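The instructor's notes for this session suggest beginning with a concrete chain rather than abstract definitions. Hand out the sequence below and ask the class to guess, before any prediction is shown, which regions might be ordered.
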Amino acid sequence: MTTPHSTTTAATPPTYASLRASLAKGIAPARVYILHGEEGYFTDELVKMFEGLVAEADRDFGLTRLYGPTTDAATIVAAARSIPMLVDKQVVIVKEAQAMRADEVGKLSGYVAAPSPHTVLVVAFRGAQAKGRDLLASARKGGAVVFESKKLRESSLAGTIESMVREKGLTIEPKGVAMLGEYIGTEASRLYNEIDKLALILGKGSMITPEAIERNIGISKDYNNFELVGAVARRDMAAMFTILGYFRANPKGNPTVMTTAALYNFFSGLLIYHFTPSKSPSDKMSALGLKWQGQLRDYEAGARNYNAYITIGIISELRRFDRMTKGVGSRQNEYDLLHNLLYRILTIRGING
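After discussion, reveal the predicted structure:
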């Protein structure tokens, strides 16, 4: 285990990828790590990697695991201050630190400000913000690394998926990104698990295609919300109702709540497209937060088929549809309601119609 010490690591907040890359090489460039934040998956994975810094044969002497619900600050500090036996460095990990009282966590501040050179201390607040008024201030003083595990955001989901794929040594087609983002969403553990599965099956250097996703994950490449949005944008009535028929026959994998979100996101974006003064594709992409020009295709088709007034009317219909699928003012089957919504999208004339 290599543990070069640095007092600058806290200046630049680390990313999950940068920490993983460092730990994969057996390098822990600080004496104290504080892991906290909403997304428990990233914290769990990093804790496993910190455990992996100590060889299996050395773990009786080089690895100490403590648990928030059953420990206190004095025990943690004593473990971290102890001189390791038969190993040069030791790793002390406090799991579930969010279960500790804030005043107990605060008592770690003195150690965090002046940690032992023989120990890597990891304090993991799973799915929660770090407690202890002075802990983070002491972390900055002592050169600790503080990693905040944030929930994935829809606005940056495509980039996150691409980054996950690159980390596995794969590439992915744009439609594949859209399919994974749409059907898995911001659930980090599921995204990583599915991409891990594809990496194992396809092998390093492979391209993740829609066909590979359909074959190995079970998401249809032809009958999904991505394709439905495209059909709606083109006003392709046959495709729209064919996809609806597939959704109706396979309700478990195609809940209307996801369809509502996909359509709402598209028409909200279409409104931005209409009201972006510049006609430049790059300016349109920037306004919509798109990463590649192919993503503009549906908006270009939609703009030809639905003017701004009609788009506003459709957004109103989508809000009404969302309420009705939740039982407000309707007891109809959700796919019957979706059928009616698609018909309304094709026939609505908007404010001035």
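Then share the key points. The beta strands are 32-36, 63-67, 90-95, 119-124, 145-148, 171-172, 207-208. The radius of gyration is 26 Å.
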